[in-house]
Amino acid sequence: MYEYIKGTVERVGPEYIVLDNNGIGYQIFTSNPFSFSKFQEETTVIYTYQHVREDIMALYGFHTLEEKNLFTRLLNVSGIGPKGALAILASGQPEQVIDAIENEDEAFLVKFPGVGKKTARQMILDLKGKLQDIVPDYFPNLFTSEKFEEKTMASKQLDEAILALKALGYSEKEIKKITPSLQKEELTTDEYIKLGLKKLLK
């Protein structure tokens, strides 16, 4: 129903952002809400997908139209819902997902929350050879981030990143394993999330 919404990001949380458009606040679920933090003081365009079921109606948002297209392709795979598709996009490295699909690398795909062997096989069957149109000039620009100068913010950023990882479906046990290595870094929330996902997918 909504191709995109233009407005100002008023709130950022672990699972969603609130985008103000002419006095109306839209709750928009995203793969990495904190990557939208830099738009809290300026107008931005967020590409949206409206998901409707009998028991829920929700908006999902993306930085680019290509990212949205990949999300919708993933939704067409049996066994993958919106939350699972967001978890896959959240890695910030969808080129690896496409490589895994093209090379039939089930071992990589099952590392994502909620993706078992059956779903990984279904992803390969449904999507192999059908994603080329969203690859060119797209992946290097995903989830750009800005590093904060104040080192004292690092702890808060890490806490926010951990909440976001939990919201994506990773367990407390999985997150605890990578937390010590994350604590050695001084990054933004967005960067912590991407680094955490990289470690979780190893």
Automatic annotation (TrEMBL):
InterPro entries attached to this UniProt entry: DNA_helicase_Holl-junc_RuvA_I (IPR013849), Hlx-hairpin-Hlx_DNA-bd_motif (IPR003583), NA-bd_OB-fold (IPR012340), RuvA (IPR000085), RuvA_2-like (IPR010994), RuvA_C (IPR011114), RuvA_C_sf (IPR036267)
Gene Ontology cellular-component terms listed: cytoplasm; Holliday junction helicase complex; Holliday junction resolvase complex
Gene Ontology process terms (BP): DNA recombination; DNA repair
Domain Helix-hairpin-helix DNA-binding motif class residues, every copy: 72-91, 107-126
Keyword RNA-binding (UniProt): no
CDD domains referenced in this protein's UniProt entry, alphabetically: UBA_RuvA_C
GO molecular function: ATP binding; four-way junction DNA binding; four-way junction helicase activity; hydrolase activity
Stored SMART domains: HhH1
Sorted UniProt keywords: Cytoplasm, DNA damage, DNA recombination, DNA repair, DNA-binding, Hydrolase
Family as reported in the entry's similarity comment: Belongs to the RuvA family.
Complex and partners: Homotetramer. Forms an RuvA(8)-RuvB(12)-Holliday junction (HJ) complex. HJ DNA is sandwiched between 2 RuvA tetramers; dsDNA enters through RuvA and exits via RuvB. An RuvB hexamer assembles on each DNA strand where it exits the tetramer. Each RuvB hexamer is contacted by two RuvA subunits (via domain III) on 2 adjacent RuvB subunits; this complex drives branch migration. In the full resolvosome a probable DNA-RuvA(4)-RuvB(12)-RuvC(2) complex forms which resolves the HJ.
Function: The RuvA-RuvB-RuvC complex processes Holliday junction (HJ) DNA during genetic recombination and DNA repair, while the RuvA-RuvB complex plays an important role in the rescue of blocked DNA replication forks via replication fork reversal (RFR). RuvA specifically binds to HJ cruciform DNA, conferring on it an open structure. The RuvB hexamer acts as an ATP-dependent pump, pulling dsDNA into and through the RuvAB complex. HJ branch migration allows RuvC to scan DNA until it finds its consensus sequence, where it cleaves and resolves the cruciform DNA.
Protein name: Holliday junction branch migration complex subunit RuvA
Record organism: Falsibacillus albus
Gene it is expressed from: ruvA
